[in-house]
Amino acid sequence: MNQIASVPAAALPKKKHRNLAQGVVESFTGSIQAGTLKPGEKLPTESVIMEMHGVSRTVVREAISHLQAAGLVQTRHGIGTFVLEPQPTNMFAADTIRTIGDVLSILELRISLETEAAWLAASRRTDEQVALMDAALKRIVAAPNRAVAVESDKAFHLLIAQATGNRYFVDILSDLGNTIIPRARLDSEQLAHDDPKAYQERVNREHDDIYHAIQRKDAEAARAAMRTHLSNSRERLRRAQQEVSA
User: Which of 10, 39, 117, 192 would suit a FRET pair with 223, their CA atoms being 20 to 30 Å apart?
Assistant: First the structure.
């Protein structure tokens, strides 16, 4: 009979630490996402994790490092490793808004959102909020450059959201960030073949109409003025998109 030579254990291929660590990472990630491990809860000690997964201390420490890098846990030296509160992802991150079509889609969202925000703001605003809106509009007019104008424009729209008294309007517009101002992403006047001065004057008039409606607490006029402002922005970009595609 032929003898089957035994292969020494040392000659068997070993799994890489990275693969073993990934298994530990996936296990804890799954538990955190499923809610089995809750925010603030302490992970087992290194020794317990070693026993649970049959891995070395080196593998456990590598896995913990990956979990830390992913923002899932935080290690407090001498105390232990704890599960962190989940961080919301921002679907409106700047690198996801790349084309005229993307900006148009954002404008469609804003039309449905901000027309109602303007209506509520006109109904609920305080005198202090009106004064802040007025100051923001003056900063836009006096802006020495495009960056300052964009920031002041964004502040004006956020002030309207704040005047609704509903923090969720503020949360959404804050997540949108500079994407709420088309010219922060695109050279709107150039795309629309507008004279920059005429373009800015038109936008300023639209802002004034919104502001004065909110100032006099005319909710319907505020809603109509906001819809006109955002619809005009959408139409300018739509024409520009057609020209680019032609």
Answer: 192
